[in-house]
């Protein structure tokens, strides 16, 4: 196994990693004709475009890392193989690496079918992380939801402090009742 063969076999995983970083941190503009993740579903709307290109980048990074590790193991093994067979195995590894680009495509297309309808609109808008989505972090008072306060009062859950106070009083009553039962039992036993 020579150094040139090791470099040749590791090129495809590094292309995946480098391309994934580009797609993740500098995604292509919507509808661009350059290098981008461009399928029928990904071009339905801006949201599908952003989701598919960003997802393709992230999956490509991880795929490149796994393929680099796998290729490194194969390259370590190839130093014990005859040179002619090592080149054949290296060519097979590179072919498998290239075919593995179908994994992110299959993954993203399945998710586009699940998360977006045929018009490119969100089917589950609360589960997707889309840029410029307003955060719920600025919601100050969750107890102001309509009907919650009335339902809580009916259920006896006015607030945590009141609930805790009521629970403590209930436990005190139980302790007093059990202590009284113990006293009554002891009086009955001494009377006999």
Map the helices and strands.
Blueprint: H1 3-25, H2 46-78, H3 83-99, H4 102-115, H5 148-155, H6 160-191
Helix pairs in contact: 1-2, 1-3, 2-3, 2-4
Name the features.
192 residues; 0% strand; 2 domains; 66% helix; elongated; mainly alpha
Report the uncertain regions.
none
Radius of gyration: 32 Å
The tally of helices reads 6
Query: Portion of residues in helices?
Result: 55-70%
What's the count of strands? 0
Strand residue content: under 5%
Mean pLDDT: 76
| Approximate shape | elongated
Count of domain modules: 2
Tell me the major beta sheet. Answer: none
Order of helices and strands: HHHHHH
Distance between the termini: 98 Å
Structural class of the secondary elements? Answer: mainly alpha
Tell me about this structure:
The chain is mostly helical. It has 2 domains: 3-132, no CATH class; 148-191. Helices cover 66% and strands 0% of the residues. The chain contains 6 helices and no strands. The termini are far apart. The relative contact order is 0.10. The mean pLDDT is 76.
What is this structure, in a nutshell?
With 192 residues, this protein is mostly helical.
């Amino acid at each position: 196994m020579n150094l040139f063969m090791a470099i040749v076999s590791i090129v495809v995983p590094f292309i995946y990693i480098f391309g994934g970083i580009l797609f993740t941190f500098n995604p292509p503009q919507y509808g661009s004709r350059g290098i981008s993740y461009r399928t029928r579903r990904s071009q339905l709307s801006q949201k599908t475009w952003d989701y598919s290109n960003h997802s393709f980048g992230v999956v490509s990074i991880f795929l490149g890392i796994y393929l680099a590790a796998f290729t490194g193991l194969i390259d370590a093994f190839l130093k014990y193989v005859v040179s002619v067979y090592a080149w054949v195995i290296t060519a097979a590894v590179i072919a498998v690496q290239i075919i593995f680009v179908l994994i992110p495509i299959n993954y993203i297309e399945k998710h586009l079918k699940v998360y977006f309808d045929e018009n490119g609109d969100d089917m589950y808008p609360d589960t997707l992380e889309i840029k410029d989505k307003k955060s719920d972090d600025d919601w100050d008072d969750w107890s102001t939801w309509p009907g919650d306060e009335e339902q809580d009062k009916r259920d006896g859950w006015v607030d945590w402090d009141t609930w805790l106070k009521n629970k403590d009083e209930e436990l005190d009553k139980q302790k007093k009742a059990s202590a009284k039962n113990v006293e009554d039992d002891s009086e009955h036993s001494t009377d006999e």
